[in-house]
Design a protein that fits this description.
This protein is α+β, with helices and mostly antiparallel strands. Helix content is 33%, strand content 9%. The protein has 11 helices and 7 strands. It has helices spanning 2-7, 11-16, 19-25, 67-74, 78-85, 128-131, 137-140, 143-149, 180-183, 204-220, 224-229; strands at residues 43-45, 61-62, 86-90, 101-104, 106-107, 110-111, 200-202. It has a 3-stranded antiparallel beta sheet with strand order 2-4-3. Strands 1-7 form a two-stranded antiparallel ribbon. β5 (106-107) and β6 (110-111) form a beta hairpin.
Length: 233
Amino acid sequence: MLLFLTILTPQADALANKPFIRKLRGVIPANYPLSLPWYEDGLNFSCTGCGKCCKVDGDVWLAPEEVPPITQHLGLNLSEFRSNYIKAEITPSDGNEEESWMCLKRDEGACVFLGKDNRCSIYDHRPVQCRTYPFWPSLLSEEAAWLEEAVLPDEVTIDEGSSERHWSPELGGCEGIAVTATNEMKEGEASDSDDEQESTIVQREEIKAKMKAAKRHWKRFPVDEIKQSTWYL
């Protein structure tokens, strides 16, 4: 049965997620074909609104279909949008600019659309790259990669020799990834905020949907050299 499921496509995915089949998959060792993902029971995550994911050194690429909703939201034509917000563009060989991939400018070390309040000014139309973070394939490939993306808030002291870290523009990281070792304030450093945001469990279905969307987005990007060197999800 399990071998049969590995062959059928796309029926395999639907069958492999039937409750009975999932029970069978639960006894398969991790990293074997059809074993359950390590995040089977969901992941602790809740966006803290820190805006740091918008300040990481790196590029945000817009797929062609992502551009019109943003230009309409801003009330700009394509030429104005390109002049104000785009630093690089990849146009198809046929010269059709409506099918171009566009790379957003940065402003003072942050995404050009990040406001002074640390909020995205095009949030409802934000790119796939942004709306799927931190559920990127590169961060879900194994639990260690996910845990390495977790960072402590700047106000929390890190003990010397600890493997914990703070966010940096070079390494990035996400404060919203709740890891027992990194999500709790050190004794005596409890937050004074009455509305401190608690982590929530993001279910497997949502995780996989965002991961697949990010993977499709990345695979469509037309320049392999950039995908393999400076831009990956």
